Amino acid sequence: RSSWLLLAPLLTPPVPVITAPPCSLCPEGAHRFQWIGNLVPEFGISSSHVKVLSSPAEFYELLKVQIKSAKQRVVMASLYLGTGLLEQELVDCLEETLEKSLQAKGSSNLRVSILLDYTRGSRGRKNSRTMLVPLLQRFPEQVRVSLFHTPNLRGLLRLLIPERFNETIGLQHIKVYLFDDNVILSGANLSDLYFTNRQDRYVLLQDSPEIADFFTELVDAIGDVSLQLQRDDTVQMMEGMVHPYRGDKVAYCEIANRRVMEVINSARTRQELLHAKTFHSSQQGSSLLSQKSSQASRDLKPEPDTWIYPLIQMKPFGIQIDEMVTETLLTEAERDARIYLTTGYFNLTQAYMDLILGTRAEYRILLASPEVNGFFGAKGVAGAIPAAYVYIEHQFYSEVCYLHQQERVQLQEYSRAGWTFHAKGLWLYLAGSDLPCLTLIGSPNFGYRSVHRDLEAQVAIVTENKALQQQLHQEQEQLYLCSGVVSSSTFEQPNRYVKLWVKLVTPLIKNFF
């Protein structure tokens, strides 16, 4: 497997970059971000329903607790499910919960839906599929496993590219884990590293039925256009559905676009009607409230002080909402605002780089040092990927210096012995504020893959609540504490040496990692 194999993906056509339309932000406080609701549903919740987690172990324990307590639904979307003991324990939890559900009622109401990527989930003899087949065999009426296959991997390209390398063309990269009405948004996959020593981000939205419904419908929509895992470990499409790599590509992408946009638009309509109804009720509430008993008053839902906006990016299907919102946030960030942006794989799109270098806000960009990059120490060509990221980082840093922006745009490298780094997202601090009022959290890395190739989802969390803002601030501080500021001397260290062939190949392949 020589390095020329990395060039095979170049057979796919390049995708043009788009720029988000200009947007006029509303004045004052968190509500300046209400424009996001013009594109996606807006979910108003109480900040008391939001919990920020900090460690892989906390994330893993929460997954197990939530699975065991689920009564109606378990929906999990991830790149893949690992094959170790910790992952098997998760599967055992699912089996135990399904079994209890059957015993309790004779016929269970509990439904389990799992969405993974086909290529990553099929890698190796023991893989995500073999881990889940026993569940399908034992609970065929309750369990669904969908494996998304990118429509861009087809024909000669599919025949030429070997396992692992075929994952460069496009993936199902969304990470959402929901249990009844509780939703976990994260960038972490269902694998032992993400449960032990691979640092990521995790937010739990508790008792949020509308948000849980939205992500259930989103996973169902992607599942409907995905291959369905069968009890004998084969796969097949749902009856009447266009095949992702054997069928007509344009027809498949149109169907997928329609299914996903139906979910987004119907949820947006529902939320707008709910907001209108709530507003109308509140207008009458002052005269009615005095007639209510004190107990009824306590039963009223608290006024929302936090808003959740789901941002979807599926460029293969022509859906670019996350890209538009992210570009607009970067464009509209005011002078003296601070943006803390983090990614495990520093490979920003040209549009994002131009906005960071050409706008007025201060940036603190956290990225992985070579030693905590997930590809560090990998065999073969993959072992050179950390060096490629160093080269990309050095080029960006040189541009920052050339433009004399070192004070405004600062790079910081995460470094922690025995750990790898996978956290992604951003925190936005308005001018004059010591706390963030907005964060983005989910699967996108702000790179070419996230924007152009993979299926991605994250949420914008906007809050006016000081306690939640403090949680988000502490999360940011905890991550940045494990970092050092990048300077010219950083790239003079022996471990930053980049071989000539890596420098030559990186511009050709940077769109694929």
TrEMBL record:
Subcellular localization, as worded in the UniProt entry: Mitochondrion
Catalytic activity: a CDP-1,2-diacyl-sn-glycerol + sn-glycerol 3-phosphate = a 1,2-diacyl-sn-glycero-3-phospho-(1'-sn-glycero-3'-phosphate) + CMP + H(+)
Pathway of action: Phospholipid metabolism; phosphatidylglycerol biosynthesis; phosphatidylglycerol from CDP-diacylglycerol: step 1/2
EC number: 2.7.8.5
CDD domains given in the database record: PLDc_PGS1_euk_1, PLDc_PGS1_euk_2
SUPFAM superfamilies: Phospholipase D/nuclease
UniProt entry keywords in alphabetical sequence: ATP-binding, Lipid biosynthesis, Lipid metabolism, Mitochondrion, Nucleotide-binding, Phospholipid biosynthesis, Phospholipid metabolism, Repeat, Signal, Transferase
Signal peptide positions (record): 1-19
An annotated GO BP: cardiolipin biosynthetic process
GO cellular component: mitochondrion
InterPro entries: PGS1, PLipase_D/transphosphatidylase
GO MF term set: ATP binding; CDP-diacylglycerol-glycerol-3-phosphate 3-phosphatidyltransferase activity
UniProt enzyme class: transferase
Residue ranges constituting the PLD phosphodiesterase domain according to the UniProt record: 168-194
Function (record text): Functions in the biosynthesis of the anionic phospholipids phosphatidylglycerol and cardiolipin.
Family: Belongs to the CDP-alcohol phosphatidyltransferase class-II family.
Name of the protein in question: CDP-diacylglycerol--glycerol-3-phosphate 3-phosphatidyltransferase
Organism: Nestor notabilis
